[in-house]
Write a structure and sequence with these properties.
The protein has 562 residues and is mostly helical. The protein has a domain of 225 residues. It is built from 24 helices and two strands. 78% of the residues lie in helices and 1% in strands. It has a two-stranded antiparallel sheet with strand order 1-2.
């Protein structure tokens, strides 16, 4: 529904089956623009901060707002608020839907505000817990940055609430493109830092303030649209006796397990940060750069499909949920598998073309590309798990995914802790791998080596490998739970079987393209390799009956005709 409207007819309040593909495309378009802005921000950040102490401090300071945003924001609301709100709208019960939305907004604002105040007051102990390996100026900068970045937490959480309202009314593009403003505010700071010759610590501080300003812009543009759709919404906190409160209670009941599930994944990120702080300087920033790239296909081709389908899935039968889940996983796998292949075979060229500027040298590029390759081994599992989770959420199951997420965290931490210290003894110098004999192989390097080494090390790749293995274990557990819930096939075979041949050919073509363009700069080898491997992948997939490839070729042909 467009414009300011005071009524919600049933036909406009529901997201129909026909709307789902368009909704998915709208979500993907918004996410793409947002992530491209994020890549521009990350690229500029590497130019200004490199992989130095200020970059580590900023990455650590982001963890507190990221954790609380995911605990209280989009992920938890997708499992708790959106299904209830969408169902009420679909049944034409606008008053009850508005009451639920207002109550959730009030509760989120109060909770986020309280947690933000606590985090600001406890910034120093939090920094010590988050990054026990930080000390001196790096620790002090982390404390200062936590106090700034956490201040904008409430705005980001309320932005996620706006996303839930807009998605439930079939408005998908705006809430997913709004983070462009968040990135633009920080890009403006980085440009000022470059032109003004700021020190890394001053640039990191400016970035933190840019994050807060960007959060205000992101929330503001969505809040205006929400007000136009539902001007009667007002924050409400409290309890009254009546049937309407049952729906608020249902949101609360779902919210706890959902927050724990999303929190478990965030705790995994926290553990990576804590463990990476025990590695050589630059490990934290390197992880952040690799995570940004590897999270792009998940957001574009899994989260977009799941987010667009969730409002409709919340009104579907069990049989319809099973069919929708399988189709969504097949659709996302076609794109995500190619992205994994690209990161594995062309990762160095991709990282170099995006980040290989300024303070980010060739050794840094190689180190981050290795971390990215390790993460990419679990990329198909992560994407498929995201859709499994939303299907279970739509069926009312929030406890199962939370328990499975907790198991994943434990497994990832155990594997990462086992292999990260041996791998941290591998350094990259002038493009060559050097092995350091410094103390026990299964313990941290000496403090002098950790903080004084000018070369990047590969300890972060050990954490990424642990995450990849744990992702496949999580997928297996989610698939088994989905089979019990929906009684339909949920394993990788119906999703991946047709992709084996095109994937194999894409790997071969990418390797050949990389060899053939070896003398060219990264900004040339990356697009050439991606174009060659992508063409081979799509053509062979279409020839072997993959519907997504056939649809993609059909769209290209129509564009060529015009």
């Amino acid at each position: 529904m467009d414009g300011h409207d005071s009524s919600f007819p049933d036909s406009s309040a529901q997201v129909t089956t026909q709307d789902a593909p368009r909704g998915s495309a709208a979500v993907a378009s918004g996410i793409l623009l947002s992530r491209l802005a994020g890549l521009a921000r990350e690229s500029l950040m590497r130019v200004v901060l490199g992989l130095g102490p200020a970059a580590d401090a900023f990455a650590a300071a982001l963890r507190i707002p990221n954790l609380l945003q995911n605990l209280l924001g989009e992920g938890s609301l997708s499992a708790s608020f959106i299904p209830v709100y969408s169902r009420l709208l679909g049944e034409g019960r606008r008053d009850e839907a508005g009451r639920v939305a207002a109550a959730v907004a009030g509760l989120l604002a109060s909770l986020a505000g309280g947690l933000a105040v606590i985090a600001i007051l406890a910034a120093r102990p939090l920094a010590t817990v988050l990054a026990p390996g930080f000390e001196g100026a790096r620790l002090e900068l982390t404390v200062d940055l936590i106090r700034i970045t956490t201040g904008g937490l409430g705005l980001l959480v309320l932005s996620a609430w706006c996303l839930g309202i807009l998605n439930s009314h079939g408005k998908f593009f705006l809430p997913y493109v709004a983070p462009v403003l968040w990135n633009v505010a920080q890009i403006a700071v980085l440009i000022a830092a470059l032109s003004g010759g700021w020190s890394p610590s001053r640039a990191a501080t400016g970035l933190a303030w840019g994050l807060v300003v960007g959060g205000a812009l992101q929330f503001g543009v969505q809040a205006v649209r929400v007000w136009r759709l539902a001007p009667e919404l007002r924050p409400w906190i409290g309890r009254t006796i009546g049937r309407k409160d049952l729906f608020v209670a249902e949101v609360r009941r779902r919210f706890g397990p959902a927050a724990l599930g999303r929190g478990a994944l965030q705790i995994s990120g926290y553990l990576d940060l804590v463990l990476a702080s025990l590695l050589t300087t630059g490990a934290v920033a390197g992880l952040l750069s690799a995570q940004m790239l590897y999270g792009l296909p998940v957001a574009l081709f899994a989260s977009s499909v799941a987010a667009a389908a969730l409002p409709k899935m919340s009104q579907s039968s069990v049989a319809e949920l099973a069919a929708t889940s399988l189709r969504a996983r097949q659709r996302s796998a076609f794109f995500v598998v190619f992205c994994a292949v690209s990161f594995l075979t062309l990762g160095e060229s991709i990282v170099g073309s995006l980040f290989g500027w300024g303070a980010f040298d060739g050794d840094d590029v190689l180190a981050v590309s290795i971390v990215l390759a390790a993460y990419s081994l679990g990329l198909p599992a992560v994407a498929s798990s995201r859709i499994h989770q939303n299907s279970l959420y739509a069926a009312g199951d929030t406890k199962g995914p939370a328990q499975i997420a907790a198991a994943r965290v434990c497994l990832a931490a155990a594997i990462g802790l086992t292999i990260m210290f041996p791998m941290d003894r591998v350094a990259i110098h002038a493009g060559e791998f050097l092995f350091l004999a410094d103390g026990d192989w299964f313990g941290p390097l000496s403090p002098g080596v950790r903080s004084g080494s000018p070369d990047p090390h590969l300890g972060a790749a050990g954490l990424a490998l642990g995450s990849a293995v744990a992702a496949w274990a999580e997928l297996a557990l989610l698939g088994r739970r989905s089979r019990r819930t929906f009684g339909a096939p949920s394993g990788p075979s119906p999703v991946m079987s047709k992709l084996v041949t095109p994937t194999t050919l894409a790997i071969v073509v990418a390797i050949v393209a990389r060899w053939a363009t070896g003398g060219l700069p990264a900004v040339a080898t990356a697009p050439i390799g991606l174009a060659a491997a992508g063409t081979a992948y799509v053509v062979v997939a279409a020839a072997t009956g993959v519907a997504e490839a056939q649809t993609l070729i059909g769209r290209v042909r129509r564009l060529v005709r015009y």
